[in-house]
């Protein structure tokens, strides 16, 4: 099978591609325009593989998309390309509309015309998998979980743009019949995440003895999933999910932001016993809350567990240990990313996505 992965040079897309190349026989085309958030080092283990190809393509450019589909003739599209950082969406929402909404419509239109040109078994087998976030559901109180039936109530420009793209995907299925499947996942963490998100930012700042910013009182709750578990869920949904359905994905690992930051600090105290910054908790600083900051996200994952037999392998603790160790061992990768690509006057003030 030929698979197009959009956003394959990003944090989650690269984990999906590593999995597809290492554990399946499928061919993969990574379609990515290489924004600041991309990191091709995340693909160094697979980029020479004969089943891997890269296309430097922007989903905002419909003509370029049509050429890629015409030449590659995919059986499956896994759509991950997006602007993904909430804080950036607050500062510059237009980019999020252009890529997440208009780009997704461009991709849907390209897929529609390509799919319409197919016949028989090829047409029936085609799938468009749209990868989205639990943030489209808005904010929970102390009780309850997001299910696939929860009404959408996005609160940030990022989540609103993802919600809009989810609606487009749904509409293209209902109106034109394209075989789509959508997934909505909670916060991911793991190796190769761009160092503006809460976990990598906290690890890197703590290693360097810089302050560890925490929004508000740190009591906002997120559900966390190790990125390789999400990649496996995505592969399962793309290959076996029911057409027209939505699947929620999560780690059943709710933590307050301050718990996450304290866990990282104690791991670093343990792994770096000679660090002069121990105890790393002393670096924590509470900063003004993010506007529109959702209080709690929590996911009911019973549908994907029941229908597709997926469940995470890593606990929050085991995944966090792997992540902290990766950032300690790969200083060269994140230093280069920060130096080369981050126009980061706001470094030090980024929080959970
Ligand atoms: P990321 O920011 O790390 O990577 C995004 C990738 O998309 C980058 O490689 C970037 O170059 C590419 N891209 C951006 N704009 C593009 C464009 N116009 N054309 C082509 N490529 C473009 O994001 P991520 O964290 O890997 O997230 C991937 C997807 O998963 C996104 O759709 C995001 O909304 C969703 N998601 C993320 C999380 C999370 O915790 N990170 C959780 C749930 C869902």
Automatic annotation (TrEMBL):
It is an enzyme of class 4 (lyase). Pfam families: GDP_Man_Dehyd. Its cofactor is NAD(+). One of its GO terms (biological process) is nucleotide-sugar metabolic process. Transmembrane segments: none annotated. Residues 4-323 form the NAD(P)-binding domain. This is dTDP-glucose 4,6-dehydratase. It comes from Parvibaculum lavamentivorans (strain DS-1 / DSM 13023 / NCIMB 13966).
């Amino acid at each position: 099978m030929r698979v197009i992965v959009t956003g394959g040079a990003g944090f989650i897309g690269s984990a999906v591609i590593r999995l597809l190349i290492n554990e399946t026989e499928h061919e993969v085309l990574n379609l990515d325009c290489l924004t600041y958030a991309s990191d091709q080092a995340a693909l160094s283990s697979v980029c020479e593989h004969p089943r891997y190809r890269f296309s430097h393509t922007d989903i905002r450019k419909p003509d370029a998309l049509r050429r890629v589909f015409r030449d590659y003739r995919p059986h499956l599209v896994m759509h991950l390309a997006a602007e993904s950082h909430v804080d950036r969406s607050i500062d510059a929402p237009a980019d999020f509309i252009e890529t997440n909404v208009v780009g997704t419509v461009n991709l849907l239109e390209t897929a529609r015309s390509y799919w319409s040109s197919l016949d028989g078994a090829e047409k029936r087998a085609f799938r468009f998998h749209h990868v989205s976030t639990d943030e489209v559901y808005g904010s929970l109180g102390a009780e309850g979980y997001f299910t696939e039936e929860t009404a959408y109530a996005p609160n940030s420009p990022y989540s609103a743009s993802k919600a809009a793209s989810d609606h487009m995907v749904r509409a293209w299925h209902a109106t034109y019949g394209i075989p789509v499947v959508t997934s909505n996942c909670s916060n991911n963490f793991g190796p190769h995440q761009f160092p503006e998100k809460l976990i990598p930012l906290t690890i890197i700042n703590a290693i360097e003895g810089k302050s560890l910013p925490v929004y508000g009182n740190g009591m906002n709750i997120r559900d966390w999933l190790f990125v390789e578990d999400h990649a496996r869920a995505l592969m399962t949904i793309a290959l076996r999910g029911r057409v027209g359905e939505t699947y929620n994905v999560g780690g059943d690992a709710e933590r307050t932001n301050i718990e996450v930051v304290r866990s990282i600090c104690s791991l670093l105290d343990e792994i770096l016993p000679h660090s002069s910054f121990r105890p790393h908790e002393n670096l924590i600083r509470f900063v003004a809350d993010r506007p529109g900051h959702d209080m709690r996200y929590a996911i009911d994952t019973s549908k994907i567990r029941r229908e597709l037999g997926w469940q995470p392998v890593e606990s929050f603790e085991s995944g966090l240990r792997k992540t902290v160790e990766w950032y300690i061992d790969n200083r060269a990768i994140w230093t280069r990313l920060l130096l080369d690509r981050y126009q980061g006057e706001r470094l030090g003030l980024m929080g959970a996505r």
